[in-house]
Amino acid sequence: MLILFDTITDESQRKKVEDIYVNYSKDMFKVAYNILNDYQLAQDAVQSAFINIINYIEKISDYDCNKIRALVVIIVRNISINMYKQIKRQKNLFIEDADEFFHDDSEPFDEKLINGDIFRRVSEKVKELKTEYADIISLKYYYGYSNKDIANLLNITQDNVRIRLYRARQSLKNALYEYKGDVKI
Amino acid sequence: MKDLYDEKLKSESKIFEALLEYAGACHVNNIINDLDAEANGEEVPYPEELSIKIRKMLRHHKRKEAVKKFFTSAKKVFPKVAVFFFVAFIGFTLAITTVSAFRARVFNLIIEIKKDYTDIKLKENSEPNASSSTSMVPANWENEYYLSYVPHGFKISKVESQEITKIIQYTNDKGDFIIFSQSSNENTDMMVDTENAVTQKIDVNGYEGILVQKNGLNTIVWRKDNNLFSLMSKIDKNELIKAANSIKLKK
User: Fold this and answer.
1) Counted domains in chain A
2) ipTM, interface predicted TM-score of the complex
3) Any CB–CB contact under 8 A between A109 and chain B?
4) How confident is the model over B218-224, as a mean pLDDT?
5) Of the residues A45, A124, B196, B215, which has the maximum number of CB atoms within 10 A of its CB?
6) Are residues A1 and A89 in the same domain?
């Protein structure tokens, strides 16, 4: 009986992977192609994303449709961006973003910023964030993945995850401070 | 005061993390809205080869998971199966060595029909038996079996008596013969040529025997008590069976 139960559990997860492929592979390919502008590279990005999705299917299978849809897009987008950067680096064409001026992260979050308006401001500012930063904030704080999981999903190192998270948090803080008109030096 | 300040910092940190979670939810919502909006826009042709590659990947994953699950389950079940077979083996061995009735059933007459010969093995058995009547008995025949019936015209023409095997040969005027042999050893084997022969199991006085017919020659082999018997002749098989059924012990 236990063997049969185990099989059923796996069967539902396998079906989930197939559902993801059937429902979202076109979205994924479109996102990858828009970044990479190359059919072959876009295919590679989608394949790579699927490998990571399969490895994390146990966690993913509990999500609702939209949550899965957004997640697979985040994964394939970031994989595509990484591939794009690698190609450009190889061609010596990629210029790293200049470091932004960040407030010290250890300083307290200004409580004056917290009022009834905060949610609207966050909602608006998140659109202005760099896509990579918004993606990693979603993976960490909305989907609840660990740094290790994020690294595996996006094919990057854990150090990269830490750096991006730091920059993402600072970027959002910065945006909220700018909105408020306060700049701390 | 410092404790209060630290507590306040922790709470502010929690609030910020909650805002980050909210930011993440907003971003996910934006992704969905953008995808829905783009759905009406320009279509990027989806390559068929990608479909093939991903389906292959999914099949491979399915097989891999099935194998992994099989070994995981086998690991759980194997010790129990091993224990079961071990206990069964010990029980069988104990029964064989200690219970004679069980042993007798297991060590009964074994008849193997092989490709080009029939090997009849006589193994352990024990049963007393006795009956007597006199007809066609060789001289000095004591505690040995004889045929109380032979077809009309047959007489004893030859008797051989070895340590374990006794043979009586009957012949008639036409030169036909009947050879009756008996062996009184529990480990006696008899080889009968059954290649291209017709074989059938028969009953001889309640004991299982085998009739082999080849090139006109009929051979009956059977066991009774500790003895192995055989009859060989070209006479009619029914007559031969009748002779087999007529054996008696001369005391």
Assistant:
1) 2
2) 0.80
3) yes
4) 91
5) A45
6) yes
